[in-house]
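Worked Example 4.2. Consider the chain below.
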Amino acid sequence: MSFINKFDVIILDVGHTFMFGGYRFFNTENFAATYRSLGGILLTDELVNEIIFTLSRKIKTDGKNPAYYECLPSVISYLQKHPQASSLPASELNLLEPVFATHEVGVISQNHVEVLHKLRKTHRLGIISNIWSKKDIFIKEFDRVGIRDLFEIIVFSSDFGWIKPSTKLFNQAIEHFDIEREKIVYIGDHIMRDIGGAKTAGLSSIWINKRGKQLNESMAIPDLIIKDLQELI
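Applying the procedure from the previous section yields the following structure tokens:
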């Protein structure tokens, strides 16, 4: 029996698990071009680039702080408090929010679409994923590649203001399946948020370790290590 066949339910992370190319918040990114493509005309390129880049740094920093694991503010809340954005009209904040989302979302390849379809033939599937933006743009990508209906439940952190490794986020999905936790396995790429969070929630885990990182004594230990989701089939 293969490892995956020990379980009835597979719950997956999204980013760097089957969606790639997301979280593009480098200081070389042209956020202003995205702003223009969404109809923005009021703000200068320099201001848009500065706001989105510094916003991403602030959210990333707060996301590493355990004090925010169960109370992470929304993107629009961050914009409303941003020193360079707080005085802008609401209409501009409502444009900057999808600019951020556009650079957070990634792309799902056909290879990973096929993997998910094959896993669905043998297992019940769900999702627990940390995202900062509203889920709409992620669901749109799911719909584009035809995988949305493969998942019985989709739990995005921005729906609750909780982020992995919070057990609250895991419990949202676990309770849906109404099955012993021993029959559920969680798959993700982040050793602390995904593997550590799954362990705390009482789940087995599979770590996607694409870059061959080394484990140490301070890290949660996954039950299986793979380089790509495709290895499971």
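The chain has a mean pLDDT of 96. The longest helix spans residues 45-63. Compare this with Example 4.1 before moving on.
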